[in-house]
Design a protein that fits this description.
Radius of gyration: 23 Å
Strand order of the largest sheet: 14-15-16-13-12-17-18
Low-confidence stretches: none
Largest sheet: 7 strands, mixed
Shape: globular
Mean pLDDT: 97
Number of strands: 20
Number of helices: 16
Strand content: 15-25%
Bound molecules: nicotinamide-adenine-dinucleotide, (2E,4E)-2-amino-6-oxohexa-2,4-dienoic acid
Oligomer: single chain
Helix content: 40-55%
Structural class: alpha/beta
């Protein structure tokens, strides 16, 4: 059974309720998960508060950062355990989790420990009216107990992306992992204990959103801040919950990201980027590309090569050496993606490849498999081009000039990420500056430096995290004005 982790100990929810953790490859039961009730969430928040006011608070910054390095080392040491847990929950290929999800879990702790350790303090030297000197300097203190609410697509990566800076800044956390992917958040409790992180600093409660652990946590009066990654609609519900208590919120929400391919681009570079941004993680990446705009001379070639790339994807179990393409997270999500596939057909899209459910061996037929899909020919107003699908699919539209490409890419209520492919550095700079998104990649995709600002505008979120931007969210600043009497 996958248990809650409260005050340094694994425990069952007090009501004894459980829910199933299913294998997306087969639909079979992986494990039972103990569901936290309101009282368990109370316990977790109380434990986090005691640790905040007690042992965690007493550590020096350098000691805290050393502990976070020890957590990173622990993740590295237990890499095979994290890998097994992550692929059992998500069905993603082992090769992907092994080079992306698990190493990023460790890197998040190392980078944020170092960011916080090396943070400068703002100081202004000035004078009082009597001519005596005064120093204004900023003190940072942790926000307090932080609620961390996570999605299922990159479970360890996205959870530690929030937990690491929160802890580095001296906060304590209560994590609510996605009900679909509870395992790695639970396992991290063992690593915290092994590393010597005081009990109560890191807590995990399992459950769902409304009327369950997610809502109990985000409406809890003992929480000082909420950091959320997930769907825009859920973000709205959490913002409403946060409004009552005037809680600080960081929102990393959905996207409907564009790639713009200019005719001077290196086509191999374009394809290396698009193959990943459209199909990696079975398209379940918030930064993924679902809208591709191609300058007309390259249009046919890019469409053909996207279809070829889709043809090279082999569905199969995470440990199948012949497979490189996992299932969607659940049958419910498969139904959602298939509704968009049907909608595209109904609206008269040209289905270049895919559009349905692939043939898989009998043992995998209960899984949430999906075909990678490429469309052309839909109008810009189609729901396929305006709503986040979160599947391995894209629509390709030709364009004739830069202004048209920019107008199309910006015609969305989301504002998370975009990629631009061109060899013209001046154009790259001009277009990147005109795109209304939080993150732009030029001639690449998902190339991360964790010190940089990350986040979205519009329906894609509120705030930026990464490097010193995370420190801004996870700390409160007090300015001290010290009048000197030399
Ligand atoms: P989701 O919003 O359905 O769930 C996310 C988490 O919120 C889960 O833990 C869920 O249990 C919880 N939750 C749901 N309703 C809640 C409520 N009312 N109160 C409190 N908690 C609640 O998202 P998902 O389906 O798990 O993840 C996919 C979505 O996440 C996509 O939209 C994707 O774009 C987005 N995402 C965004 C980023 C980013 O950095 N911007 C990163 C990853 C995923
Ligand atoms: O790389 C990251 O830090 C990050 N937050 C990635 C988000 C991916 C969305 O699915």
């Amino acid at each position: 059974m996958i248990l809650n982790f409260i005050d340094g100990r694994y425990c069952e929810g007090r009501g004894g309720k459980t829910f199933p953790d299913l294998d997306p490859c087969t639909g079979a039961l992986v494990d039972h998960v103990s569901e936290a009730e309101r009282g368990d969430v109370d316990d977790a928040v109380r434990a986090a508060r005691s640790a905040l006011d007690g042992p965690w608070n007493r550590l020096r910054l350098t000691e805290r950062c050393d502990l976070l390095h020890a957590v990173a080392d622990g993740i590295d040491r237990r890499k095979q355990d994290f890998l097994a847990a992550e692929v059992a929950d998500t069905g993603k290929p082992q090769a992907l989790a092994s080079h992306l999800d698990i190493p990023r879990g460790a890197a998040n702790f190392r980078v944020f420990a170092d960011v916080v350790r090396n943070l400068p303090t703002e100081c202004f030297a000035s004078h009082a009216p009597d001519g005596k000197p005064a120093l204004n300097y900023a003190l940072r203190r942790p926000k307090g107990v932080v609620a961390v609410v996570c999605p299922w697509n990159l479970p360890l990566l996205l959870m530690t992306w929030k937990v690491a800076p929160a802890l580095a800044c001296g906060n304590t956390v209560v994590v609510k992992p996605s009900e679909e992917t509870p395992a790695t958040a639970a396992l991290l409790g063992e690593v915290m204990n092994e590393a010597g992180v005081p009990a109560g600093v890191y807590n995990v409660v399992h459950g769902f959103g409304p009327d369950s652990a997610g809502e109990f946590l985000t409406t809890h009066p003992g929480i000082d801040a909420i950091t959320f990654t997930g769907e825009t609609r859920t973000g709205t519900a959490i913002l409403k919950a946060a409004a009552g208590g005037i809680k600080a919120v960081s929102m990393e929400l959905g996207g409907k990201n564009a790639a713009i391919v200019f005719a001077d681009a290196n086509v191999d570079t374009v394809m290396a980027g698009l193959k990943r941004s459209v199909f990696e993680n079975t398209g379940q990446v918030c930064l993924g590309t679902e809208r591709v705009y191609v300058e007309r001379p390259l249009f046919d070639e890019i469409v053909r090569r996207l279809a070829e790339a889709a043809g090279q994807l082999r569905p199969g179990r995470p440990d199948d050496p012949g497979a490189n393409f996992g299932p969607l997270i659940s049958l419910e999500h498969q139904r959602k993606v298939l509704r968009y596939y049907a909608h595209a057909r109904d609206e008269g899209a040209q289905v270049v490849c895919g559009g349905g459910v692939p043939e898989v061996p009998a043992a995998l037929r209960g899984g949430s498999w999906i075909e990678p899909t490429v469309w052309t020919g839909l109008p810009a107003t189609s729901r396929v081009l305006t709503e986040e699908i979160f599947g391995p699919c894209c629509h390709v539209t030709p364009f004739d000039d830069e202004a048209e490409a920019l107008a199309s890419a910006n015609a969305t209520s989301y504002g998370l990420a975009a990629s631009v492919y061109t060899r013209d550095v001046n154009r790259a700079h001009r277009v990147a500056a005109a795109l209304r998104v939080g993150v732009v990649w030029v001639n690449s995709w998902f190339l991360r430096d964790l010190r940089t600002a990350f986040g979205g505008s519009g329906q894609s979120g509120i705030g930026r995290e990464g490097g010193a931007h995370s420190v801004e969210f996870y700390t409160e600043l007090s300015n001290v004005c010290l009048k000197l009497e030399p």
